[in-house]
Specification:
single chain, mainly alpha, rod-shaped
């Protein structure tokens, strides 16, 4: 009989320890949720919070416009280069045709007095001037494209410099936030540890010892 009672008491105590563990698990889950939500106490930080918004917006819009201008200049440059290539080909073809035509003429005929020679020479000169004009157009468009790219790069450099300074401020503020969150957690856990210590000293053998030990496990 006494053996049976001791066995029942043993299992009863085990059941109470199980209650203590379940209670501790519940408190740990609740505490984890609360501690996990502590960073949400602070307002979320973004890079734009530390930028001069009007200046940054102006630079972004300016950069977009300059990049669009650079793309348009590159497209116009490609067209100008194509026209120059066509003009060169036309000049080359006219020069070859003119030379071949001269070679077939009688060597005794004075070509400088021939109206057809004069007309062909003038046409070739006009074509060469057209080629030179296309070359000047290409050079002008190359300069325009270069200016547009340099302007876009300079604007981006200013924006990058502004964002770098803002990012340094953001990182500094994030460190301060992390420290505040750490202090919040410390302010939350230290009283729990103090209560757990007091319960261990005063109440660990009391009537509600399973809950006392559950709280102690949770606090630790």
């Amino acid at each position: 009989m006494s053996k049976s009672l001791r066995l029942s008491e043993k299992w009863f105590r085990r059941g109470l320890w199980l209650v203590a563990l379940v209670f501790a698990s519940f408190l740990i889950g609740l505490g984890g949720t609360i501690v996990g939500d502590l960073p949400k106490v602070e307002a979320p930080l973004e890079l734009d919070n530390f930028l001069n918004q009007p200046a940054a917006q102006r630079l972004r819009e300016q950069g977009r416009g300059e990049r669009s201008a650079a793309e348009a200049a590159d497209s116009a440059l490609a067209q100008a280069q194509l026209q120059r290539s066509k003009a060169r080909s036309e000049t080359r073809a006219q020069r070859e045709s003119f030379n071949n035509w001269l070679a077939t003429r009688s060597v005794t005929q004075r070509s400088e007095q021939d109206p057809e020679v004069i007309a062909r020479t003038r046409a070739l000169d006009a074509q060469q001037r057209a080629e030179q004009a296309q070359q000047r157009a290409v050079e002008a468009q190359q300069q325009a494209a270069l200016d547009a790219r340099q302007a876009a790069a300079q604007t981006q450099k200013q924006l990058d410099s502004m964002e770098t300074a803002a990012r340094a401020k953001l990182n500094e503020e994030m460190r301060r936030v992390e420290m505040r969150v750490f202090l919040y957690r410390l302010a939350l856990t230290l009283p729990l540890l103090a209560i757990a210590g007091w319960l261990f000293v005063k109440k660990r053998k009391g009537t509600y010892w399973p809950f006392v030990w559950g709280f102690i496990f949770f606090a630790l």
